[in-house]
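# nightly structure sweep
# worker-07 picked up a monomer target from the shared queue
# config: single-sequence mode, recycle default, output format = structure tokens
# input follows
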Amino acid sequence: MHIDISQAKGVLEAVRDVVLSWSLKLEEDGILGEGRTFSQEEKQIAAKNDYSSVIQINITQSQMQNSSSESQSSSESFSNDLRSPLVLQAPEVFTTERLILRRPRLSDAEAIFEYASDPKVIYYMDYCPRTDVSEVMKSLQGKVKQWESGNFSWVLIVKPDDRPIGTIACCVEGHAADFGYLLNQKYWGQGYATEAAVVVVQWAISLPEVYRVWATCDTENLASVKVLEKSGLVCEGRLRCYQIRPNISAIPRDAFMYARVRGAS
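# output follows
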């Protein structure tokens, strides 16, 4: 990663100026509480650009109750920014020998509907086939927010075309990530699902915070069993009455749990 030192210094100087001027204004307005003023040492610290010491100035919430609404709003915004977790960044594009995996677009709706409405493709899923392309459009519109929350998805494109033949999704939560996929039945049996799964699993397990990548499949879905095993996952056991597959039965069905764990032999 390249860091522009001059830009970083400029940002720090701006932060120093904002924090100091805001804090001194609070002192002048009497917001810091009875008997609390900035010492000469604190002011000298600010003048010497000792940013870490300046930012450590503590103003409790009870002392802030008499502040103006504008100052209170600024304080809450500043605190929320400091508490906000870093957003996990995922590649928007993966490239394999035969495929391109990219983020879905609204223009992909028709192609996705082709396989998302196919009863054979959706047979082992936990939802029913899509009945109208508008359902796919609605789903695609929600992908941006999902992406920002760590629920990533990519469409599978066979080079050199740009028409999706499938979808693969990966949700990162805490120390684990799970994934699943759909593939247009016209492209079954050609290794595309495995090719996509391998690159997504490899990416997920390489994340510093992820120690486990997992997926489940119906015990009768032997094609997915092969994909998961070829993707480097190991069967950990059978989950009894794990999932309702509405296209098969209203009774919960057993599933296999597959996982790849960092450092496991």
